[in-house]
C-alpha cells in the first residue's frame, strides 16, 4: 500500500507534499511522488534530486515516478499500479464564486481515483 502525491513546486503542491509525507509516516507506508517527465533532451529536474534527498533525510520510504503527458491521469494510473490507499492533492484558495468550480485536474482525480483522495488547501 502507498500514499501517492504529485510533485509541484507551487504552494499548493508543497502543502500537499508535506501532508502526504505526514500521512505516509503515520500509516507506516511508502510514499510515491508523481512528477512531470522532463521535456525531450532535458535531464532529470534538479528539484527531484533535492526532493529525493529530503525524503531520505526524513526517513520516508519512497519512489519518485516521472510521467509524460497529463499529470492527473498519471497520478490516477500510479495510484492504481501501486495499490494506493490514499492520493493527496493540493487545492488553491478560490473566491466565493470560484468555489463553485473545481479545477479540471482535481475534478478528474476525484472522479477517477481508485482510492480515497485527501484534498488540502494552502
From TrEMBL:
Domain UspA as annotated: residue spans: 7-121
Pfam families registered for this protein in UniProt: Usp
InterPro entries the record matches: Rossmann-like_a/b/a_fold (IPR014729), Universal_stress_UspA (IPR006015), UspA (IPR006016)
Domain of life: Bacteria
Record-stated family: Belongs to the universal stress protein A family.
Protein name: Universal stress protein
Species of provenance: Xylanimonas protaetiae
Lineage of the organism: Bacteria, Bacillati, Actinomycetota, Actinomycetes, Micrococcales
